[in-house]
Amino acid sequence: SPEPSPRAPSTSVPPSRHCWHRGISREPGSRWTEPGCQSCTCQGGRVLCDTVSCSVPCSHPLPAPAGGCCPTCTGCLHEGVARAEGDVFSPSDGNCTVCVCLAGNVSCLSPECPPGSCPSPSHADCCSCNPEKCNFRGRTYAHGARFSLDGDDCTTCVCQGGEVECSFTPCPMLDCPQHQRHLGPGQCCSTCRDPPAPAGCFLDDNGVEFPVGQIWSPGDPCELCICQADGSVSCQRTDCVETCPYPIRIPGQCCPDCSAGCTYMGRIFSNNETFPSALDPCLSCICLVR
């Protein structure tokens, strides 16, 4: 009898496995969303999760609804206010601007206004203020522009709503007397001249004026003063260092003289001169200059 032929090995794919996740059985290949906007899928018995990626094709989407992860374009969020689809509104500071919400996008239109002077506050006007320009001496200036007249830098002009107003350039306040102020050629404002250099030192107490460099004594022979170049007076005292028991004081001289002789009981004796003592006539004194 013929022998049976060998069978070919089986090539069938093993069945996919289910996934158990948080106590729930998930079908193979299934996809679901977990809290925290995690997108999960069951693959080969394993659960793979990733953060939900949102594609928002509009400019002003509404926040994600309760339980959702991605913003929605079935309305608009404009300046913090939720607008329904097709809603027509005016922004808070848009004057007469009109906006509309369409598929999460906000489109706004403003009225076109011709140039002209600003309307009076009493008129309700949607147009913004477009002040007129100024035509002055063959030139055109924008509103608010400041300029000087030709050849006159001392005059400043300004364009105000089509009208030109000119005024003299303000000058700073000067803190010098009138006779020291000077207006130079081509200048708009006066400046202070430097005061003339002092010719000497003037003493207010007695009205005496000393020339620069003059040295004098103001009354005390031990004090000398000098007149400085800036008109001030500088004084300095002299300290006497030479001492002797019976010095000779010369009128008008600061320090006593110990080399000329001796002063004794109101009398002056020369060096090596002898004289009787005023306390005891039997005693003889001598002047010795050392």
Automatic annotation (TrEMBL):
The gene is Vwce_0. The keyword Secreted applies. Residues 17-74, 74-135, 132-193, 199-259 form the VWFC domain. It holds the Pfam family VWC. GO terms for biological process: cellular response to virus. It is found in: Secreted. This is VWCE protein. Its main location: secreted. InterPro entries: vWF_C/EGF_Fibrillin (IPR052080), VWF_dom (IPR001007). GO terms for cellular component: cytoplasm; extracellular region. PANTHER family: VON WILLEBRAND FACTOR C AND EGF DOMAIN-CONTAINING PROTEIN. Signal peptide: none annotated. Keywords: Glycoprotein, Secreted, Signal.
